[in-house]
Design brief:
The chain has 551 residues and is an alpha/beta fold. The chain is built from 25 helices and 18 strands. Strands 3-2-1-8-9 form a five-stranded parallel sheet. A three-stranded parallel sheet has the order 14-15-16, covered by helices on one side. A two-stranded antiparallel sheet has the order 4-5.
């Protein structure tokens, strides 16, 4: 996102494409309407008519997936009608750079393509350079191999007729929209492009966005008030992935994760800081060493940036980057190389590029732990079409989820039997054991689970888990929302279950009760283990007592 939402009010034309901003991004739409109040024209390009369309001056119902053709036609219109901002294009883009003689485009392929390797030799597309190493330029934009003319030749195919045939939009309407938006290619005008998942969900999502950059750079709409290419966040906050270092390859601030060979900060900076031979180039990422030093000092304020860098984890240089993607984990599942998975804060059954592959891979696991307050497609993948739960392997790992999560419309007995769904043997002995632990469940065996008290529902959740005869019982906040006397009873029963030979992994904020019964304890702060020891040791630890026990 190049501009702030509030800046949308400064636009003379707003092009919304791949987004239903009025309904999905109402905060941003406030500023879109502010722009309209100021006289801006609003254009909505979308296959369907929505509330966004209703508030716009133009609705362009193109065929789904034809955005590139629509924008390609706009690029061609800009070039053929001389609607581009000449001074901006010459001075602030690479349009005047002269491309080497090795570049060509023919029959849908660029030069340098290796059919066997299915890769391009990108050196064929390099710029011609002068004695100082800087790209040669033609400020008149007349050289046949300058970027401007090569682009003009490439996009000449996107005629109004061709674009109309592909998109389903009439030539008249295409021309109307092109003229309106391209009128912003002047010093005193600005147009902005807004997009969302309607673009990025496509396999060509990146190319959609790149096409919009060609339009905006030709019109001089980058770096000006009311301009830009702005992603409307909301459904998934992708920005959070980069800001919080949730992706394998990048640290906050778009700083790449170091590779193992870069042992010092100087080596990292040399490998990751671009150098330019062009005297007036902004080369903004030339400031990366400053950003990196600032970030390292925020992590480890008590040491120098060089020392702080030595604490940062590295990627193995000899491994493919894809080995670090979570999707590669599912490749290993498919190959039978993984026994179990903790799905923590994600829903891989839906969020991956191939849902069927992800769900099929999870069938091969021996155990799966889905850590989520609510059930989702990953936790219930075995219920999907064509799945046979009896063929999905289990290794005796059972979860008692936070919030109990019983089946409220089923009876107590039916809830308990659900826990033994994969078993084919006699359940009577296990039922009696559960009833001996929780006598109240036996008294209410024909009562609907949803009518039980909170404490009784927690007992039912534990009993249901025990019906699968687990070797490992994971319990997530079993004391949540329960009265003190009920909490005491629950923890007594947890001890009794443990005495029967069941290993228990207990996640619990009631540190006092949990540590009293724990053999080993771990203290986590902001996702990191900060202390470990026996339950008795942690109970007497001054830091633990001050932070968690009120001592």
């Amino acid at each position: 996102m190049t501009n702030h939402w509030i800046d949308i009010k400064n636009a003379d034309v707003v092009l919304i494409i791949g987004s239903n901003a009025a309904e999905h991004h109402p905060v941003s739409f406030k500023w879109i309407m502010r722009a309209k109040d100021n006289g801006a024209a609003l254009i909505h390009v979308d296959p369907k008519f929505s509330r966004t369309s209703a508030r716009c001056d133009y609705h362009v119902p193109l065929r789904s997936g034809t955005d590139i053709a629509f924008l390609g036609g706009m690029v061609n219109y800009i070039l053929e009608s001389n609607s581009y901002f000449h001074d901006y294009v010459v001075n602030y883009t690479n349009a005047s750079f002269i491309v080497g003689k090795g570049y060509d485009f023919k029959d849908g392929l660029f030069s340098g393509y290796d059919a066997k390797a299915r890769k391009y030799d990108q050196s064929k597309w390099g710029f011609e350079k002068g004695p100082d190493g800087a790209p040669l330029r033609d400020a008149t934009l007349k050289h046949e191999r300058c970027v401007f003319n090569l682009m003009k030749k490439h996009y000449s195919r996107y005629t109004l007729k061709n674009v109309s045939d592909i998109t389903g939009v009439s030539e008249e309407n295409l021309l109307k929209v092109y003229k309106q938006f391209c009128a912003t290619g002047k010093p005193d005008k600005a147009g902005t492009i807004l997009y969302a998942l309607g673009w990025t969900q496509h396999t060509v999502g990146v190319q959609n966005i790149r096409c919009s950059t060609l339009v905006q750079l030709l019109l001089g709409n980058i770096g000006v008030a009311g301009g830009g290419i702005n992603a409307l966040r909301g459904e998934p906050n992708v920005q959070g992935s980069t800001d919080h270092a949730l992706l394998y390859h990048v640290l906050p601030g778009y700083i790449g994760l170091p590779l193992a060979p870069w042992q010092t900060l100087a080596q990292f900076n040399k490998a990751n800081t671009p150098v330019t031979k062009i005297p007036n180039s902004a080369n903004w990422w030339g400031n990366r060493p400053k950003y990196t030093a600032s970030f390292l000092m925020s992590l480890y304020p008590g040491v120098t940036p060089d020392v702080a860098y030595s604490y940062v984890p590295r990627l193995d240089a000899d491994k493919k980057r894809t080995d670090y993607m979570w999707m590669s984990i599912f490749d290993r599942m498919v190959e039978g190389k993984l026994d179990g998975l903790f799905a923590w804060g994600m829903n891989p059954a839906c969020s991956g590029p191939n849902a069927n592959k992800s769900r099929g891979a999870m069938e091969k696991l021996k155990w799966l732990v889905n850590v989520n307050l609510f059930d989702n497609e990953t936790g219930s993948f075995w219920r999907g079409p064509g799945k046979d739960p009896t063929q999905i392997v289990t290794q005796g790992v059972t979860l008692v989820p936070e919030g109990r999560r019983i089946f409220p419309d089923m009876t107590v007995l039916e809830n308990l039997k659900i826990g033994a769904y994969l078993r084919k043997d006699d359940l009577s002995e296990d039922l009696e054991w559960v009833y001996s632990l929780f006598p109240r469940l036996k008294e209410r065996s024909w009562q609907a689970g949803g009518t039980l008290s909170g404490g009784e529902q927690q007992m039912l959740a534990v009993g249901r888990a025990l019906m699968s005869r687990p070797k490992l019982l994971m319990m997530d906040e079993p004391s949540l929302g329960l009265a003190p006397l009920v909490v005491r009873d629950i923890f007594s029963i947890i001890q009794e279950i443990n005495k029967q030979g069941v290993t228990i992994l207990l996640i619990e904020q009631n540190a006092n009760m949990a540590l009293k019964i724990a053999d080993i304890g771990y203290v986590l702060e902001t996702g990191r283990i900060t202390l470990t020891g026996s339950g008795e040791e942690l109970l007497t630890n001054d830091a633990v007592r001050a932070a968690y026990l009120g001592a």
